[in-house]
Amino acid sequence: MKARQSLLGQVTHVFPKVMSPLRVLIVIPEVFPYASVGGVSRVAAHLSKALLELGHDARLFMPKYGMIDESKYPMEMVVEGLRVRTDGDSTPSEIICNVKTCQAGGQARVYFLENMEYYEKRANVYGYSDDPVRFALLSRGVLEFLRHFEWKPDVIHANDWQTGLVPNFLRTTYAKSQELGGIPSLFTIHNLNYQGMFDHRQVSELDFDDGREAIAPFFSERLKKQNLMRRGIIYADVVNTVSETYAREILTPDFGEGLDKLLLEVRSKLFGVVNGIDYEDYNPATDPLISVNYSISSLDKRRENKLALQKEYGLDEGDEKFIVGMVGRLVEQKGLDILLEVLPHFLEEFDVQFVATGGGEEKYASALRDLAKRFPGKVGVHTMFNESLPRIIYAGSNCFVVPSRFEPAGLTPLEAMRYGCIPLVRKTGGLADTVTDLNVKENTGTGFVFKAYDRWALFSQLVRAYENFRHPEVWKGLVKRAMAADFSWNASAKKYVGLYRKALIFHQRKTE
């Protein structure tokens, strides 16, 4: 015990920041509620809020997109006329930006990088040919902002390929900066499948980026071919991904998306932290978006939400119906291929219904709409973003299907469980870390789990879920266990604090 206390004293003496509240700046492409395309926006909002509750000074930095309404989110000017160098011989040699700030009630303070051409004139968050320029501007813009701002973070937390140049700039261009040179970085991989605006699986030797060459000038064609995900991994002091299982999976060729060898090289600084959800926000007892509020002790009220869901989607009404819900992006990753193969058989043979909401690839959206036409009264789909529909589906559905090919985190099953909607998932990534398979004999488990990425493996679990639903006492116990599961951000935020402290220590050791 004395030896352990002595070691702790040495660490505290050498790294005083390690044992004190931290100043953390989270740089991220989207933050809920200002801009929300994927789950990363909720991670940003909920993690930063949890960090504040733990006593840390957490703030966020993101672009000020055109859809952000300043009348709804009043902002103050922080830095006007911020000059961000573009490097190279291209014109312009600088891009002029502003930085504004807003702090919604109970949330962390957010700083917005304002630029008319690259952010405000765009209708969407992503999907432009010059996205590498837009996010290089974000990555360098945040560092220029910090050079001119009195508040300095102890750690910068970058997220996904869009901010992969933040650790790169810190370790190269700003390595000797008096203001920024000593700041370590954490880089979080939310989805390794997205590495930049190119197909990372089909890269010629001429275009390959090993991540070691200098960052290309903003207006160079080379910038579009540089792998910003790879660079974030190389230059960050600590790297993590959003579940422990996914952190192991990406070390293999099957999940590593071409970066598995690099990740094996840096595995000593690679960690996994399961994402959480905000239990104040996602609370069926208080949620204003659902028809009738309920809790684990008043589950009978849940049937009213089921009827409301059926009315919302124009389905045949009845509490005896078994409703399977889906919320998420309509992309291959989410298992749409195998789901669309088995749903017709499932709908034909059993007294079941299916509802879905989410945007994505048109081929999947079209297939779901065709399914609704084929099974009127049994299938309802909404393929446009709608903020309230996910909550209505969670509160009214009996089962929530996530048959993903791979899944780094998987927030929607956690949200569904909170509302007593039982997840049916494939055992991969974050889904493997958060959903346990039903064991009727031992009264354990929070959902239904299958291993093989196979249509009949999925079909068997759909049938199994339906058959267990027909046994009310078994199902009620399953619902209660799912609702009682704790995936709040408090525990996850503490693990992130541990990673921030590791980044401080690792960075200090590199500079000694």
Provide a descriptive summary of the structure in words.
This protein has helices spanning 2-14, 40-53, 116-120, 131-147, 165-171, 228-235, 244-249, 260-265, 302-313, 336-349, 362-374, 389-396, 411-418, 429-434, 455-469, 472-484, 489-511; strands at residues 23-27, 57-63, 76-85, 94-102, 109-114, 155-159, 185-189, 238-241, 270-272, 322-327, 352-357, 379-382, 399-402, 422-426, 448-450. By secondary structure, the chain is an alpha/beta fold. It has 2 domains: 19-276 and 490-511, Rossmann fold (3-Layer(aba) Sandwich); 299-486, Glycogen Phosphorylase B (Rossmann fold), CATH 3.40.50. The strands form 2 sheets. The protein has a 9-stranded mixed sheet with strand order 3-4-5-2-1-6-7-8-9, sandwiched between helices. Helix 6 links the parallel strand 7 and strand 8 (238-241). The longest helix has 23 residues, at 489-511. The chain is globular. 47% of the residues are buried.
